[in-house]
User: What shape does this take?
Amino acid sequence: MFIHTDVQPHLIFLVILLTLSWSFATWLTMQSKKRFCELLPQIIWLSKHGLLIGTFLMIINLWFLSLFYEDLKLSMTIIFVSIIIGIGSYLAKYFEWLVFVQDVKEGFWKSKLNVYFKNNYGNGLGPRSTQKILQSMIPNWWVQLLPNHYQLEIEEAMEIITERSHDYALRREKMN
Assistant: This one.
């Protein structure tokens, strides 16, 4: 038979342990995406080496699960891999919250985006260029990881900056 129906407690502990480990590994690989984003909170060392360490941990997780193939058989191994990858990838955003978003106060992102916009506009960049740079400095994939109230705060700040840059561009055209 392909399904082993007598799942033992050590196998339940195994799937929990590997799911948490997979979450951590997924979070590490996400850190490498943040490497060239100035505005995102990051740990430089993790941004440089997160992809390598995270991928290594993922391979170790799958290898460790394969050691229990005799206990699980094919179907249960596929189910365990699905649970580990599915739930583990979902939990990675909570690692991000735990490490980087936990201490952020209300209005932090709004002020940070506005200050960044002012500083770069003051350095000679036009408003539209600054707006495009700003959108590349806070990628959409990362904003989607944040809690809803931070997502709304960032979107509101981006809309205000867009309106200001558009208004400034219109005033500049009228002057010429």
Observations:
- DSSP finds seven helices and no strands in the chain.
- Residues 9-101 form one domain.
